[in-house]
Write a structure and sequence with these properties.
Length: 275
Amino acid sequence: MNVSPNGVRAAAVIFAAGRGSRMTGYEGNKTLLPLKAEASSYVGSRPFLHEILDNLPEGSKAVVVNYRKEDVVSATRSYDPAYVEQPVTDGTGGALLAARWFLRQVPEDKVIVTMGDVPLIRRETFRSLLECANRQAFAVLGFKPRDKAQYGVLEMESDRVVRITEWRYWKEYAPERRAQLRVFNAGIYAGDRAAILRFLEDLEARPHLVEKRRGGRTVSVKEYFITDLVELMTSAGVAVGCHICEDETEVMGVDDPDALEMVQREYSRRRLQGN
């Protein structure tokens, strides 16, 4: 049986279903965007998913697909992951719910959940997050951004995460309380497979209605938020921990062309420095 360098195995679920509507002029799945730009920032080599799959610990892998799924399958087939169809893009929680069959059948006790558009997480960071999840049932990757922007915040008591509060809620906090917010959500998680499966049932019972623009009009759609898992767990007395990533560039997500160019520059810098 293959093991990672420190002897730890973990299953992993990678979310790769979304289109990336703000990537103007790009029609592909954004998890296939290149880290090594060549003809343009959209054309090159080393797709995001390859970097992520290479840096995850040894273990069963699942890629959640929807938009341009054939392209994703073609680009990642050599890694031999399972492919999870997310029939409707109904949020991060919906992606994990779609992967429930995969979680039920894998042999690993621990699971990492990560985003296909956050390509710069190092192997050591995934490993440290797993070590945190060995001490608690569930762990969140946090970071301390220079600009709090619109990230979800980790509300903590001592070293435990109590809840993840989205920007649209914490922005209404009193100025004094907002100033105390330090650790934010990178959107990457690790935890006990059994605990995740247990609380997915509760997550499925609490959808959110979200307004979105579709076909030129505003519609209400049902979505599930993976962040709700934290509050569900802590309310049931299950410990949720946090590993803080000290390098903010590791957790950069790619939502628009400017972010893509930043990630590509950072990847190039790492290669030049040999790390």
